[in-house]
Each structure stands twice: as structure tokens, then as C-alpha cells.
Amino acid sequence: MDAPSELGDFLKSRRAALRPEDVGISPPPTRRRVTGLRREELAMLSGVSITHYTRLEQGRALSASDAVLDAIARTLRLTEDETAHLKTLARPAAASRPAPSRVEHAGTSARQLLTAMSDVPALVLDRRNDVLAWNRLGHALLAGHLPPDSPDTQGTRPNLTRMLFLDEHYRDLYSDWEEEAQLAVASLVLVAGRHPDDRRLAELVGQLTVQCDEFASRWARHPVRTCTSGVKHLRHPLVGAMALSFENLVIPGSSGRRLIAYTAEPGSPSEAALRLLGSVTAAKREDTSARV
């Protein structure tokens, strides 16, 4: 993932999404060759020289000031997340250091916390969305078709983004797969911009781009969005429909690990379904233990 080319592609995608009339430019009587804003139009509206903007879009001006980037962001009507992404790409020297080569694992305290959250589905993820650990209910909720110990080794470790596009069981779990897919790609674009030297992250993006046209088409549009909380609408194969609130809790440190937990509204059908899932999976585990 090359930061200068990512910056150029991102700016071009946002220029193409704006019509001249959207920013107060009267269309000429003759047909335009481009549907979006031209470089010179964006530069003029932003108060930036066309030479400086062109160098920026070509990845040859990697020291743009906040004032310049903010002016471009306002003209392009970027969201807060998109503006932050623009600044990250425009100043790659300020990006995070390369990811460590060692295999990541959830710490002992994080695993103890997951175990203590016996009535709450929870899991620990790294910045690539690899599952480092989950508790019994988290496993049952999201990936009961996988072995419970699959997060323990890198070779079998689930990745939620990969599963969303390539695992039919996980894909079918989401009532609105399109929305979930869009959010997953938008979040991954942000992370990739912040960590351009993360080899395993680049390999994940490459694999999904080659193996899944649905991912590739979304990635090419450079969506940008972060989501730390919200509601997931699920269709669980054992207990049916559920609407679960989720929270992402960042684990202190530079690794980008986070704990995600799911809860249901008290007294709701979703809470009853979650309790039923806990009972069913507990019974299955007891039966398996008895056979052994």
C-alpha cells in the first residue's frame, strides 16, 4: 500500500463525486469531459495554486500544511473521518511505525476479562480484525461453526473482515450484509492509511481484492468511516433474529488491539435469544466434556 498513490486515488475519487453545480460553478454550454471537479476548479475554490494541488495529488508534495489540507477538505465536503484520512495520507512520515513481525496474542489479563464476562459475547481483535481471543458466548454468537480454539494460532486465526466476504456462514449472519460490508471496508481503509508498512494488513487487502469482486469494487471507491459503537442486526442459525448493541473498547498501548462486546436491551426478545444461546452452548459443552 503506497501512501502517495493512495493519496492521489483518494483525492481523485472525491473530486469525481462532486459536480460543479454542487460548489457554485455554472456548467458551460459545451459538454464537459469529466463529471466531477477539475483539478484547477478544486484548487481555485480551495485557494491553493494549481501547481501545488497537482503535486499533492501526484504524491510529490508530502509536506502540505493543515491550512491547505483543511481548505481542500472543506471544498470536497469531506467528513471528519475523511479529513483525518486525508492528513494521514498527505503526511506518511507521521504514520505509525511498521508492525512488529512477532505473532500477536491476547494478554493474560485480557483473557481473564473475557472469561469473567460470561453473560456477554466478547472478543479481542487486533487492528487487522484478526480474532486474538473470544469468550464462549462470543464464539457462539459470531463463529460457532469454527473450532473454539481457532484464535490461538496464527494459521487458524479467524479474521472478521475476511470472513465477512469469504465465509458464507459468517456472511449469512448479518441481516444487512451490504451495510456491514461497506462499514468493514471503510474501517479497513482508515487503518491501512495509518499503517502503510503493515505487511500482513497489505496481504489481507491483496487477498480480498483478488478473491472477491465485491470487496475490490468497494475498496476502489476509497470509503472512509470509523465506527466505535452501534447496533448489529443478526440472524443467528440457532436462536434467530437479534439486535445487539456493540462497543469497541481500545486496549491501551500501540498495538491497536481492542475489545468488542455485545449486549441486548433488557427485557427485549434479543436478550431472551442471547440467554438461550448461552444455555444451548453451555449444554453442548457439557455434553462434549461428558463424552471425553
The strands making up the biggest β-sheet line up spatially as 2-1-5-4-3
Instruction: Let me know the largest β-sheet.
Output: 5 strands, antiparallel
CATH architecture classification of the largest domain: 2-Layer Sandwich
Instruction: Using the CA coordinates, give the radius of gyration.
Output: 22 Å
So how many helices?
Answer: 13
What is the CATH topology of the largest domain?
A: Beta-Lactamase
List SSEs in N-to-C order.
HHHHHHEEHHHHHHEEEH
Question: Can you give the helix content as a percent range?
Answer: 40-55%
Mean pLDDT: 88
How many domains in all? 2
User: What structural category characterises the helix and strand content?
Assistant: alpha+beta
Cα-to-Cα separation, first versus last residue: 48 Å
CATH class group of the largest domain = Alpha Beta
Approximately how much beta-strand content do the residues carry?
Answer: 5-15%
What is the overall silhouette? elongated
Uncertain segments: none
Secondary structure: number of strands: 5
Question: Would you spell out the secondary-structure blueprint of this structure?
Answer:
Layout: H1 3-16, H2 39-46, H3 50-57, H4 66-76, H5 80-90, H6 108-116, E1 122-125, E2 131-134, H7 136-143, H8 160-166, H9 168-171, H10 177-194, H11 199-211, H12 213-220, E3 229-236, E4 240-250, E5 258-263, H13 269-291
Antiparallel strand pairs: 1-2, 1-5, 3-4, 4-5
